[in-house]
Amino acid sequence: MAKTVGVEEEFLLLAASGEPVALAGKVLAAVGGHPGRGSGGSLHQELFQTQVEAATGVCATLADLRAQLHGARVLLAEAARAEGLDLVSVGTPVLAKAVPVLSEGERFARIGNLYRGVIADYQSCGCHVHVGVADRETAVAMMNHLRPWLPTLLALSANSPFDRGRDSGYASWRMVQQSRFPGSGVPPWFDSASAYERQVDRLVDCGVLVDEAMSFWLARPGVGLPTVEVRAADAAGTADEAVLQAALTRALVGTAEAALAEGREAPRVDDQICAAAVWNAARHGLDGPGVDVVEARTVPAARILDRLLAHVRDALADSGDLAEVEESVAWVRRAGTGAVRQRRAAAGGPEAVLEMLRDQTVREQPHPTYRKSA
């Protein structure tokens, strides 16, 4: 039986000019409920009032997940249009001049007070995947097995090449921004849940995290949930790309579970090599060098993606997701990552990029296999 999965997606609200607009409260009030609220789906404010978040409920199949993701995008886009705004799924704003306004709430205020200038322009949006596991101890054991593959999930998702009107030169400028925070990147190796919790407590005591529910690692045990949460990906340009991240993450967790059952320990890859792999993924996406963290050497990023697919092939076959994932990866390779597609559209100017983002955020799924499975 396939593991349950859920996805949290963060979006930006834009004026016709492309400038982020602080009207999240009005948009969320107009939407009402999440299409998956019966299974726990919900809508939320994010750090800034220019952002909204949609979290799916607990899903057993990719078809259910896809329906919830697309449904929430459509509802939020319609509510945004009623306020004269556009909803876009992108890692960082293409254009942004004004200083964003923090959302209301004591915790958001504490975050703003602690990080100050680091978050002054941090309107970054991600795609977070939760996979159900037995308990917190299992979640931490799974994280060790996921460590080598987190940079590849980032490379596949790269969707933030622009920073306030300029081409950053990176495929994921969001990850560069996130690297400013303490403890960003691939998490350390932990031999138990208590070791993980002790480390988080130390970071809180050191004054670099607001509380125990905060960390900037690309994977962690779910906060208040029996899940592994993977936070590597930029906001997915299309709902299908969010489904792809979920399918690969679920398969990685399934593969890790099989390894643990056989007593196979995850490779103890070097923290600095992992940091190099994250940087390369942020810089190049899939179109350039990546870092094989096990062998500690540079190889084409596309080849590491091939290795990831081979690594999780059995888990994908067991869950019935193999054909869909292979088709979706083939589509990304043909069309390019979100960053590649944005740069291609930029030949027509910023307006063309914004138009593409608006369209693909709510576009129906393009893949024939997906239409059949839905």
Which structural class do you get from the secondary structure elements?
alpha+beta
Q: How far apart are the first and last residues' alpha carbons, in Å?
A: 19 Å
The shape, in one word, is globular
Number of domains: 1
**What is the CATH architecture assignment?**
2-Layer Sandwich
The helix/strand order is EHEEHEHEHHEEHHEEHHEEHHHHHH
**Mean pLDDT over the residues:** 94
* Residue share in β-strands: 5-15%
The gyration radius over C-alpha positions equals: 19 Å
Quantity of strands, as a count? 11
The number of distinct helices, counting runs of at least 4 residues, comes to 15
Question: Main beta sheet: strand number and arrangement?
Answer: 7 strands, antiparallel
Extract low-pLDDT stretches.
Answer: 370-374
The third-level CATH topology is Creatine Kinase, Chain A, domain 2
Estimate the helix proportion, in percent: 40-55%
In the CATH scheme, the class would be Alpha Beta
Structural notes for this entry:
The chain is an alpha+beta fold and 374 residues long. It has a single domain (5-369), classed as Creatine Kinase, Chain A, domain 2. The chain has helices at 24-31, 62-82, 106-115, 136-146, 150-157, 173-178, 193-205, 239-261, 271-284, 301-311, 313-319, 322-335, 338-345, 350-362, 368-373, and strands spanning 5-14, 42-45, 51-55, 86-88, 126-132, 162-163, 166-167, 219-221, 227-234, 289-292, 297-300. The strands form three sheets. Strands 1, 2, 3, 4, 5, 8 and 9 form a seven-stranded antiparallel beta sheet that branches. A two-stranded antiparallel ribbon has the order 6-7. Helix 8 (239-261) packs across helix 12. The longest helix has 23 residues, at 239-261. The two termini are 19 Å apart. Mean pLDDT is 94; it is low at 370-374.
